[in-house]
Amino acid sequence: MKIKITYPYVEKRKLKRQKFFSMVRWLFLFAAMICPILNIVIGGAAWSLVVLMSLYTAWTLILSPDLVEYNRISQFIKAIICTCLLLTLIDVFLAPGWAIEVVPMVCFGGLVVSGLMFFTDIEKQKQNMLPMLLLIIFAIVGAVIGLGVWHEESGWALAVMGGSALLLLSACVVTLGNDFIREVKRRFHT
């Protein structure tokens, strides 16, 4: 018996896309290697950390998105967390003094939008609850630590972020009831 093995024809568009991503990958790696070297040679503030975080954010959100957890809630929350980390790095290394108010505002906006995305389609999105729970935990812990460390006038943003995180968590618990505990057990099973 003679078996003829045939493979599907690879389209030119897919080949061009693979070549493009290969070229972009090498450009990203080159930039990631050259920026810290330039920062060390030139001296000054650690701007290369901001560039590296920006490259990571662009790579994970645009050029190489997740294959498994690719849904609207998890991608949006990943964008919010990357943005908060990038803003914190800019505040720490380049222009200090403003992130204590801006990062909680961005996180608050992320909580509101992810809550709206979650509650508009609960049956489908309750499987994607883990990223939102992680953002809620991140916001509560950040608010508690921030309010414990900074006793200035800027504590209102942290209080609003923590309060909205608690409100969203309680809305999830009340709305889902026993399904909430079941989904949490599914996500953290051993």
What does this structure look like?
The chain has helices spanning 12-42, 47-63, 72-93, 99-120, 122-125, 129-149, 155-176, 178-187. It is mainly α. The longest helix is centred in the first third of the chain and has 31 residues, at 12-42. It starts with 11 loop residues before the first helix and ends with a helix.
Q: How are helices and strands ordered from N to C?
A: HHHHHHHH
**Molecular shape:** flat
Strand fraction equals under 5%
Which spans have pLDDT < 50 for at least 5 consecutive residues? none
Report the biggest beta sheet as strand number plus sense, adding barrel if it closes: none
- Rg over CA atoms: 22 Å
Number of helices: 8
Straight-line N-to-C gap: 49 Å
Mean of the pLDDT scores? 84
Assign the structural class, choosing from mainly alpha, mainly beta, alpha/beta, alpha+beta, or little secondary structure. Answer: mainly alpha
- Per DSSP E runs of 2 or more residues, the count of β-strands stands at 0
In percent, how helical is the residue content?
over 70%
Question: Helix and strand layout, with pairings?
Answer:
Elements: H1 12-42, H2 47-63, H3 72-93, H4 99-120, H5 122-125, H6 129-149, H7 155-176, H8 178-187
